Amino acid sequence: MALPTIKCISLKVIWQDNHCLVVNKPARLLTLGDDSGDDTLLKLVREYHAGRQAPGKKGYVAPLHSLDRPVSGAVMFALSSKAATRLSAQMRGRDIGKTYLALVEGRPPRESGVLTGALLKDRDRNVTTVVKAGTAGSKSCELAYRVVARQADVTLVAVAPKTGRSHQIRVQLADAGMPIYGDVKYGASGPWDGQIALHARALAFHHPVTKELIEVVAPLPEAWQSIWPMPIPEDISV
Fold this sequence. Notes:
It is globular and about 55 Å long. By secondary structure, it is mainly β. The longest helix has 12 residues, at 81-92. The protein has helices at 41-50, 81-92, 168-175, and strands at residues 13-16, 20-25, 62-63, 72-78, 97-105, 112-122, 127-131, 139-150, 154-161, 198-206, 213-217.
C-alpha cells in the first residue's frame, strides 16, 4: 500500500551551529534514501545547508542516525568531518541520550521496566522479530520505559533505548503487550494515515568542539492532539 504523500515539506530546524544541527522530522518522510526514490530528510538538510554557503559551495552534511519512515522527531546531522567523527564516537559509545514518547494501545501492566532480549531482522520483508538469545544473526536489545500518563484507550510512555536496533522500540513494546498506536506492522489494531505514534522527543549530547552538554527537545506533531488532547508532562525522564 502506498503511503500518503507529504505536501509542502518545510525543514524544521530546532538547533544548529557551524558544527551540527538537529531537525524535527515529520512522520512519513524518509530519513535516508531507499528503493522508492521518494524525497528524504537528508536531501532537505543538504539543500538548506547549501543555501547557507558561499556561492558554488554545498557544505558538508553527514547523517548521524535515522528514524523509521512513520516515526517523527529529532534527527541530528554533522556539518563537518571533525564533528561527524566525534559525534559518531558518542553514538557508538551510547553517550548520546535519546528519549522517545509513544502512545501505546491498552494499559501497560507495570508503571516502568527494562525490556531485554534479542532481535532478528528479515531484510527482505523489512520486519524485525524477538527471538531466543543466541539465534544466528540476532542482536541483543535493551530499552527502559516509564508510564507518563494514561487515558481510557491509550497510554503515554517515555522510552529510552540502550541499544539501537532496527525497529527496536516498536518490536519490544509490542512484544511486551504495548503495540504503538497505528503500528499495524507490529500488532496495532488499526493504521493511522501512514504514521505511528512514536516521536523522538529529546536528544542530549556533548558538543563536538566545546564539549558543552546540549539538550534539544522536538515539539510533538499536531496530529497527536487528535489522539492525546491532554497536555504533555514536562518530565519525560525514564
